[in-house]
Every structure is written in structure tokens, then in C-alpha cells.
Specification:
Blueprint (H helix, E strand, L loop, with lengths): L4 E2 L14 E2 L2 H14 L23 H19 L4 E8 L15 E8 L4 E7 L1 H4 L1
Antiparallel strand pairs: 1-2, 3-4, 4-5
Amino acid sequence: MQGIGPELPLNRDDKHGLYTLLVSYKEQVKQNFKNLLLTAPGERIMNPDFGVGVRQFLFNPKSGVEAKLRQRIARQVNRYMPFVKIQKISFNTPLASAGFPQDANALSVSVEYMVPSVNLEAAIILQGEDIN
């Protein structure tokens, strides 16, 4: 089977050609969705509105962040990935191994979604290392 698109970040691989390729729609949709979430508005040339820009919400007061982020995710998905239906958006404070919050201001974003046309249900979880 040929690949659908390149895996990002690019990695050299001779299996499918020059670079590692994604071979399933689930992987491709997840990569595109993660790209949409992490890209800051203005970062993509010739498309300044593209992206949720999760990083810009990191140091805002936690009380207002969730509603703004939820709204921004819904608006961006509706515009750039209309085939994706968001099921649930959750925000959590990541826990350290002892069961205590690592940082009261740390944020983990979980987005459960589906793509009805290919019968796909999946989730993306962004934590500190993904966002920073």
C-alpha cells in the first residue's frame, strides 16, 4: 500500500520512498488535527487565520481559557476540517506520579472526535510536552 501523506516531522525512510509515510486515514486525520490545534494564527503563510494556537493560551488565567479555547477549536474545525465532528473537549490538570497536580497552571487538552464518512472515532490529547 502506498502512503497517504508524509509523517511530520519528516523522517528519512526507504520503505515507501524517501520519507516515512502515513498509511491510514486515521493517522492522517490525527496529524492534520494536531497541526490545526498547535499552529498559531498568523504562522501559516498566505493563510493567517489558520490554527487554534493552543500555546497562546498557556499563560492566561485558567478561568477564562477553557471557554475561549473550546470556541476557537470548534470554529477552526468547522472552517478547515468540516468532515470532523467534535464529540467532547476536556481540560485536565495533569497529575504527577504521586497523584498530586504537577503544576496548578498546567493544562491538558483532550479532544474526542469522529469522521462519519470513514467510520472513524479517535481522540487527541495534548499535554505540556506537546504544547511547549
